[in-house]
Amino acid sequence: MTESHPALTTSAFAGATSAGNPHFILEHTFGYTEFRGDQEAIISTLVAGDDALVLMPTGGGKSLCYQIPALARPGCGIVISPLIALMQDQVEALRAAGVSAAFLNSSLGFDEAQQIESRLLRGELELLYLAPERLLQPRTLDLLERAELSLFAIDEAHCVSQWGHDFRADYLQLSCLHQRFPEVPRVALTATADQRTRREIARRLDLESARHFVSSFDRPNIQYRIAPKNNPKRQLLQFLNTEQQGNAGVIYCLSRGKVESTAEWLQQQGFNALPYHAGLAAQVRAEHQRRFLREEGVIMVATIAFGMGIDKPDVRFVAHLDLPKSIEAYYQETGRAGRDGEPATALLLYGLEDVVKLSQMAAMSEGSEEHKRQERQRLDAMLGLCEITSCRRRALLRYFEEELAADCGNCDTCLEAPATWDATDAARKLMSAIYRSGQRFGAAHVIDVLRGADTEKVRQFGHDKLSTYGIGTDMSANEWRAITRQLVVRGYLRVNAEAFNALQLTEQCRPVLRGEEALQLRTLPKTPSTRATKRDTRAGDASAEVSVQEQPLWDALRALRKSLAEERGVPPYVVFHDATLREMLSARPRNTTEMLAISGIGDSKLAKFGEPFLALLREFEGELSDHA
Ligand code: ADP
Ligand code: ZN
What we know:
By secondary structure, the protein is α/β, with parallel strands linked by helices. The protein folds into 4 domains: about 10-215, Rossmann fold (3-Layer(aba) Sandwich), CATH 3.40.50; about 220-415, 3-Layer(aba) Sandwich (Rossmann fold), CATH 3.40.50; about 420-520, Orthogonal Bundle (Arc Repressor Mutant, subunit A); about 545-625, HRDC domain (DNA polymerase, domain 1), CATH 1.10.150. About 45% of the residues lie in helices and about 15% in strands. Strands 3-4-2-5-6-1-7 form a 7-stranded parallel sheet, with helices on both faces. Strands 8-13-12-9-11-10 form a 6-stranded parallel sheet. The protein has a two-stranded antiparallel sheet with strand order 14-17. Helix 21 crosses helix 22. About 45% of the residues are buried. The structure holds adenosine-5'-diphosphate and zinc ion.
């Protein structure tokens, strides 16, 4: 711990020039000591009045890239953000840091809006958040023309992409900003990694000549794990109980029905779980989102309708109970975990039924043949990621044209090399069972035939007379499903969505059937998640690092944060992030100088929250003196 806080000494003698200096703002307003990655270069570009296009993964620190130049330049920074519901939280977080920020949207009454407009015109605002539809109203554009503006920040810029699922027609018109406000620098920001979207943003927002900043899309603090479904409820329960006690997380399901039933089941198991999907009434959705943000340890069970712009920094896990449609979607959804840079886990459980369901959806989806072909390709890439036996992160990043120098050491295949077995014989049994029953039946029936089951369907089609009847009794139905799934993913088998999901052989089967090719497949884990017990507690559970002696103080720090947040009607992380509390726990600051040295505490937060936290720490000082 440093004796004196360098920023404090600077501030004592600071003139007007240092107050407008980006580094000074970083320390005093936001309480951080160093810029991350491209932040400094992006900020200088904007401060110099030039445009920028910023691609940075979720949690990379995009907000500071426009907040600091808005503070450093004269005038008000205009932030265009698609999500009205989240503006309030962003503005509250800025106010807690002592920034004069506001938002204008339809949730405000006439008088309130009027007040904000006049504050803007009087030059009293440093940052103003607007939804695109509001910005584009002629009235608003006129208003902005009369104000002094420092910059335009276009957040979630991938909303201009007509190919993505977040498309907003209003975003297309944002190119008008360039014509109307040629002297105001613009920055567009997104966490979408793929090249096509990037080019589209540059073209549509007239940012082709802007400086482009493309960060690495790696999220090293997220542990990626993909496991075959064998008993999803038990797998999920074990994951939550052994690794994620008391943590906030998101569980994605494909259908609304499954969202509801999963949330209900988790509630019965004693978890603080809430459903979220587009079929719920708007107030219910808003309330659930509010609780997710404000309460601690809420599990949101949701369809993909939940997510974009969820700024909650301390989401400790994202679990998928169904297979996402593409790697892009998977990466975006898992990226919502661990924005605060603390360890987080992305867990995906997938099974044969997912493969069948999604193949069917791709085949039945509306649109041209070309569109279907692309959907199919995206799905195949996703399935490929599930079945690989090498580093998941390398494969993920390679998909986004980024090459990692080494295996990551923080994904399931790196942590525990997947076991494989010689499945040639089993695969041949399965292939001939499919072939002999005429390639007209789905997996369930084919597996019944292999396992010699006595079902009505077997008798009806006389399949108990087939030479393949009962030749697979040495393996469980679950094991047969795993083999089937892997053969589909690897292209040996096809699921015909136009014929009741019948399994069919492809050309690729020939060499296997002729005995010219051997097949190695992944071994099906016998019990769910043996991995979980092997992992150290570094990842996951936010309180995992807290020792038994420290626990009372840790709980007290969190309780104090909660009560301060409730008094102000803001989420706890607006007061302090977990990482800040954790640093307090280990550094035990005794005075304001030491408090300022904690990451995430700037001048304004020190003034607002410093005293109560110092008092609490003092209270515990005696009890913990043996600790030091
Ligand atoms: P993004 O919008 O890119 O997802 P945010 O702007 O929300 O990311 O930043 C993610 C987290 O990182 C926030 O908690 C933020 O306060 C923190 N952060 C950003 N820049 C820095 C920095 N230079 N030093 C320390 N923490 C930072
Ligand atoms: Zn890895």
